[in-house]
Amino acid sequence: MASRRKPRKGEGRPTAFKPEFVAQAVKLAELGATDREIAEFFDVSERTIYRWQHEHAEFCHALKVGKEAADERVVKSLYRRAVGYTFDAVKILAPKGDGAPIYAPYVEHVAPDTTACIFWLKNRRRDDWRDKVDHEMTGKDGGAIAVADATPVEIARRIAFALGQGLRAAEQETA
Questions:
Q1: How many Cβ atoms sit within 10 Å of the Cβ of residue 52?
Q2: pLDDT higher than 80, residue 93
Q3: Which residue from 84, 90, 73 is spatially nearest to 113, judged by alpha carbons?
Q4: Pairing with 172, which of 4, 54, 102, 158 sits 20 to 30 Å away (CA)?
């Protein structure tokens, strides 16, 4: 059996990367494309996209810039949803018969969205808005919890007792 030697630098399959991919990558990332979708666009594997980012600084930078732009649009949209906003709109009315449509411009108001507000506050003001609840357990009269070592036989007795109590309660409910 012949052994395979490791290819030297410069040997092997030529890269499919082209300089024009940089501009395309920026546009794709700005539109919100994931690394997988970018790989599908260039007809390569996702791993190849990661390799290109490592080997071509301009490609890596292009993806970062594009993704930051897309993320910033989402941040602005979330903020607008959280506080509400207004926009100009046009209602098109069609009169009976063959009359020309009537265009009625108006200002529409979108009320603040409670879910967007909560999401924003939980991320921006964690200490005041987090869902975390602190639980504190204490022993008898608010003191420390007593911990005692038990033998396997004692543990088995306690389990049997608890099961017996549960069985009796179930029997009483069905009676």
A1: 22
A2: yes
A3: 84
A4: 158
The pTM assigned to this predicted structure is 0.55
Assess contact for 118 and 81: CB atoms under 8 A. no
Q: Three-state SS across the chain?
A: CCCCCCCCCCCCCCCCCCCCHHHHHHHHHHCCCCHHHHHHHHCCCHHHHHHHHHHCHHHHHHHHHHHHHHHHHHHHHHHHHHHCEEEEEEEEECCCCCCCCEEEEEEEEECCCHHHHHHHHHHHCHHHHCCCCCCCCCCHHHCCCCCCCCCHHHHHHHHHHHHHHHHHHHHHHHC
Q: What type of residue sits at position 142?
A: G
pLDDT digits (tens, 9 = 90+) for 62-76: 999 999 999 999 899
Q: How many Cβ atoms sit within 10 Å of the Cβ of residue 51?
A: 15
Q: What per-residue confidence (pLDDT) applies to 11?
A: 66
